[in-house]
Design a protein that fits this description.
mainly alpha
Protein backbone atom coordinates (compact mmCIF):
# COMPACT_ATOMS: atom_id res chain seq x y z
CA UNK A 1 0.00 0.00 0.00
CA UNK A 2 2.94 2.30 -0.57
CA UNK A 3 1.96 5.79 -1.60
CA UNK A 4 -1.70 5.28 -0.80
CA UNK A 5 -3.60 6.99 1.98
CA UNK A 6 -4.86 5.07 4.95
CA UNK A 7 -8.54 4.37 4.22
CA UNK A 8 -9.35 4.66 7.95
CA UNK A 9 -8.23 8.30 7.85
CA UNK A 10 -10.39 9.16 4.83
CA UNK A 11 -13.68 10.96 4.98
CA UNK A 12 -16.81 9.14 3.86
CA UNK A 13 -16.75 11.05 0.58
CA UNK A 14 -13.08 10.29 -0.10
CA UNK A 15 -13.54 6.60 0.60
CA UNK A 16 -16.58 6.42 -1.70
CA UNK A 17 -14.65 8.20 -4.46
CA UNK A 18 -11.76 5.75 -4.11
CA UNK A 19 -14.15 2.79 -4.23
CA UNK A 20 -15.71 4.20 -7.42
CA UNK A 21 -12.25 4.58 -8.99
CA UNK A 22 -11.33 1.00 -8.14
CA UNK A 23 -14.63 -0.81 -8.71
CA UNK A 24 -16.90 1.55 -10.66
CA UNK A 25 -20.03 3.26 -9.40
CA UNK A 26 -22.26 0.18 -9.75
CA UNK A 27 -20.19 -2.62 -8.22
CA UNK A 28 -21.51 -5.90 -6.85
CA UNK A 29 -20.33 -6.80 -3.36
CA UNK A 30 -19.41 -10.32 -4.43
CA UNK A 31 -16.93 -8.84 -6.93
CA UNK A 32 -14.97 -6.86 -4.32
CA UNK A 33 -11.45 -7.87 -3.28
CA UNK A 34 -11.73 -8.60 0.44
CA UNK A 35 -7.95 -8.23 0.77
CA UNK A 36 -8.12 -4.60 -0.40
CA UNK A 37 -7.83 -2.32 2.68
CA UNK A 38 -10.27 0.14 1.07
CA UNK A 39 -12.89 -2.60 0.74
CA UNK A 40 -12.30 -3.67 4.35
CA UNK A 41 -12.84 -0.13 5.61
CA UNK A 42 -15.84 0.43 3.32
CA UNK A 43 -17.57 -2.74 4.51
CA UNK A 44 -16.71 -1.97 8.13
CA UNK A 45 -18.36 1.44 7.86
CA UNK A 46 -21.44 -0.09 6.24
CA UNK A 47 -21.69 -2.69 8.98
CA UNK A 48 -21.59 0.08 11.59
CA UNK A 49 -24.22 2.10 9.73
CA UNK A 50 -21.97 4.95 8.65
Amino acid sequence: MSGERDPRAMSEEELCEEMEKRYGDDFDFKDLDINDPFVVEFLDRISRGR
